[in-house]
TrEMBL record:
Keyword field contains NADP: yes
Signal peptide: none
Superkingdom of origin: Bacteria
Domain Enoyl reductase (ER) as annotated: residue spans: 11-299
Alphabetic keyword roster: NADP
PANTHER family: QUINONE OXIDOREDUCTASE (PTHR44154:SF1)
Organism, as annotated: Actinoplanes cyaneus
SUPFAM superfamilies, A to Z: GroES-like (SSF50129), NAD(P)-binding Rossmann-fold domains (SSF51735)
Protein name: Oxidoreductase
Pfam family, one: ADH_N
MF annotations from Gene Ontology: oxidoreductase activity
NADP among keywords: yes
Family annotation (InterPro entries): ADH-like_N, ER, GroES-like_sf, NAD(P)-bd_dom_sf, Zinc-ADH_QOR/CCCR
Amino acid sequence: MRALRFHSYGDPADVLRLDETTPPDPGPGQVRITVEACGLTPADWAICGGLHTGELPRGIGLEASGTVDSLGPGVTGVRIGEPVFGPVVYTGSSAGAADQAVLRTWFPRPAALGAAKAAALPMAVETAYRGLSALGDVSGRTVLINGAGTTVGFAAAQIAVRLGAHVIASAGKTYADALHERGAEVLAYGEGLGRRVTALAGGPVDRVFDTAPPGAMPELLTTVTDPAHIVTVTDFAAIEALGVRTTDMNLRYDVLGEYAELAARGGFTIPIAATYPLDDWREPLAVSRSGQARGKHLLIP
């Protein structure tokens, strides 16, 4: 099979290559799929650079959707040929950006949900749900989602609305209308964000979930009465220096089935910017690193 992987750590543009290799075998409690779509995230490029080091070669692609073609020992409740999606086992010699991949957790893919839309869900939904959970009960509270134009932020805005929050979302023009249609009040990024947020909210907001690239934290701190009311998944320097928080590591893949069903009915979405053949992996890498991703980018083997 083909697999996008690296044999040494470094810049992904330099170390990634498309190899021919042996399909991975699913371990106990795992399934292997024939990959129909693989979502890409900034974490993929970070793994190439040495995040979560391990035995080489390694693959990239942390989320995928496809049809089950092999069952690991002890697996029940799923059949060969069934369409599924979920997070990929990425610690082996290949991962989701391949013709075949192993899933460590999986969910049935609803008939009305295409492979690309399903593969776009796992990382964004899990991170967003875990981040909102770190804020506590948001029902009835005013929550600022900073960076709602990112896939995690876009997911978080929808989830927070669904959990009963009054959502203020900072975002660019690309997805401002879509966020408004899904129940958020939208403010543009940029100068005076803190002042504009508190004016719209009528005072400090109750909680902030920060998913944007670092840089806005001084503004965000003006929107709350306590730095601990801010949870960030991007500005890790602010955690020690300013007293804001980040998430724990209790992964929340358990909610993926619920949000896949919701997505199949049109009640939830992760915006897809583009899909690419596996051979054309350099194009989404360049777009992602330009800071102009504007939605999920996926590889289609």
